[in-house]
Amino acid sequence: MANESPANEPDEVRDERADEVRDELPADLNASGYVGPYQFPDNSRRRIPALMYLVIAALCAAAWFFTQDSDTSVVNDGFIFAAALFALFGAYGLSAAWRMKIDERDALVRATQAVDFAVGHASAQQVWRGVRSRPTWRVFCYSSEEPPLQRGLVLVDAVDGRIKECLVEDNPDRFK
Known about the structure:
By secondary structure, this protein is of the alpha+beta class. The chain folds into 2 domains: 43-95; 104-175, Nuclear Transport Factor 2, Chain: A (Roll), CATH 3.10.450. 32% of the residues lie in helices and 21% in strands. A 4-stranded antiparallel β-sheet has the order 1-2-3-4, covered by helices on one side. A hairpin with a 5-residue loop joins strand 3 and strand 4 (163-170). Helix 2 (47-66) runs antiparallel to helix 3. The longest helix has 20 residues, at 47-66.
């Protein structure tokens, strides 16, 4: 019985597996069934939970303030501590909610202009830099020769398009 394949399982076991809760990506982050150019979500979406944290902080502080003189066991000094934590999370969320003005295509163009060779293959990856999580495009590119003679790594700021770093080297893989 332990070696049965899922197709040969009893109906009750299959029904239990169908009811299991599974993690899945939100629809706007799942690119598997998407047709057309994929649009990276903007970091400014972080403002929504940040504002929610700030509202919860205000509610906790108000509950603590208005019940300070009463003898309630429901609201205690933990509410003001929770309000401070929620306010810190909310302030951080607002400070890290950068609006991206440079998409991956713009980052590829800027990286091509930054390296001193004709680019063949290239790819862009979104990363975050620093304590405030500033969005940055990490662009890896190869020269257009076959096999490529050079490769480069360019970091393009996704907020203002400035080149943060540009590293170019001879391609060590061309001798393999």
